[in-house]
Amino acid sequence: MIYDLLIIGSGPGGMTAAIYAKRANLKVLLFEKGAPGGQIVDTAEVENYPGFTKAKGYELATSMFEHVLSLGVDVKFEEVLEIKDLGQTKQVVTASETFEAKAILLTTGVVPRKLEIPGEMNYTSQGISWCAICDGPLYKDKKVVVIGGGNSAVEEALFLSNIASHVTVVQNLSYLTADKKAQDLLKKARNVDFIYNATVKEFVGDAALNGVKIESDGKTNIIPTDGVFEYVGLIPATSFLSDLKILDPQGYILTDDDFQTPIKGIFAAGDVTVKKIRQIVTAVSDGAIATQNIIKYIENL
Question: What SS3 string covers 43-65?
């Protein structure tokens, strides 16, 4: 069977595309290797998505996915290992099957960047986490360190301040880069302090993580902690696309104004593309516009 459209990734962009494609009567299949929703699943609170004054990330993701399922979109919970360009059709290869379609939409999003420093591998998921909403409850009435100063770091530090006994935010700059409202809320929390101009050098401990070694103002010291949450940026989930030559040097997908990559019939949308703003609302917009262009592309085949 040849599909009209195969969508790789079920973040906001991918799910929006699936909704638009199905409503346009396309034969569409959506792939997801993890949980539907992408980065918003790991977000405690969403306060900037129109129509929702405040929403829990996983609830917003669930609502989107339920909308997808209500339309009868086919979903495969499998990791895509390879994409092949066959000219007028494309192939998607998973560990168990090969699928063929007239067009592909890549909405694989981004994943958390790691510090790649001593001790990080030893305590990954055993003291070091990249998801406060997932692992925050493990640190009730304990001390935690949040590394980073952007929106994710500040928002998740605020979430953790309601669980942990104390939160230390470690930032490598002399200021936070998060939205001012988020900063103001965090700075009002009585159990949060900040260390600026700091470089994290090592995670230390024995059987369990018990400290973070930092360097600040020419001095090195260890912050005692029970857990660490890292928010130091994101990297695109595009390693399986390296042979297609559609990536920029940082690994993001190159597209034109129609969201089409340098390969005709392969489109991309959302956080995984080269763009200036990566937000839920922009991913949703990308998914909708890309699908309209895909419909036109298929009509002209």
Answer: CCEECCCCCCCCEEHHHHHHHHH
